[in-house]
Amino acid sequence: MAAKTPLNIVKMKKMKKEGDPITMVTAYDYPTAQLAEEAGVEMLLIGDSLGNVVLGYDSTIPVTVDDIVYHSRAVARGAQSTFIVADLPFMTYHGSIDETLRSVKRIMQEGHAHAVKLEGGAEIADTVAAITRAGVPVLAHIGLTPQSVHQIGGYRVQGKDEQDAQRLLNDAKALEAAGAFGVVLELVTEDTAAMITGQLSIPTIGIGAGRGCDGQVLVFHDVVKYTSAYREKRFVKTYADIGATIRTALEEYVNEVKTRAFPAEQHAFNPDQEALDSLYGAKRKGEEQA
């Protein structure tokens, strides 16, 4: 497969103008990043959702910069032709600008991300402006902001009334003015999300925000049900049940080992050259002959 041309923030604005939806999915490791890139996903997000779906936490709050850097670096190795965004974790951008920029620097230099994502509205606009002045693209995130879930009273849909819709619009415009290249709208009513999308010159990326956004993002583990005891979500469409497939495969492996069905004769080797070639590959044979 020929290498694709990576997305960039100029192309994203052009896609918005032309009505070409932007595709985004989370990724946390090398093989997932490879598969997503091969599938044509245009943006990958190393979300702090890794706390829930990879690290086993009950929220995103315990996720650290070290966690994001580690997983971003793996994703960057697997998807070298895809635009990569990494989350700034909880409380890493609410102190001094110097402290914030140190976290951003690590994510960009060590994690090899192309951009960072911050949760919050007008109250973080100055921080967004400082990061963009430093030459780092920023993807904003409003609506349901999981890092603030305790403050906003749980996982509640946002923008249900005129006042709340206006608040979200004001936040989106402040973030656009601060230099954000796009805004994630999470768990926002469809009408409010469409209204915000129509009033911005930068793309909106929806998750649980309906059909009017300029793009969509989902958590990889939701898309393929890569988990045990999956909890259905109204705003998610699952496209495969990888969790069940993996569980079944492992159950069969355990059974075959216990019954001595595996390994079978074809999985064993005799001490001859043919077996060595099968074990190490033809390359080894060629090297030995050379």
From TrEMBL:
At which positions is Mg(2+) bound? D48, D87, E119
Cleaved signal peptide residues: none
Provide the active-site residues from the annotation: E186 (proton acceptor)
Record-linked InterPro entries: Pantoate_hydroxy_MeTrfase (IPR003700), Pyrv/PenolPyrv_kinase-like_dom (IPR015813), Pyrv_kinase-like_dom_sf (IPR040442)
Q: Name one GO cellular component term.
A: cytoplasm
Q: Which cofactor does it need?
A: Mg(2+)
Name the positions where 3-methyl-2-oxobutanoate binds: D48, S49, D87, K117
Biological process (GO) annotations?
methylation; pantothenate biosynthetic process
Q: Where in the cell is it found?
A: Cytoplasm
Q: In which pathway does it act?
A: Cofactor biosynthesis; (R)-pantothenate biosynthesis; (R)-pantoate from 3-methyl-2-oxobutanoate: step 1/2
Q: Is the Nucleotide-binding keyword given for this protein?
A: no
* Enzyme Commission numbers on file: 2.1.2.11
Identify its protein family. Answer: Belongs to the PanB family.
Q: What does this protein do?
A: Catalyzes the reversible reaction in which hydroxymethyl group from 5,10-methylenetetrahydrofolate is transferred onto alpha-ketoisovalerate to form ketopantoate.
Please state what the protein is called. Answer: 3-methyl-2-oxobutanoate hydroxymethyltransferase
The gene is panB
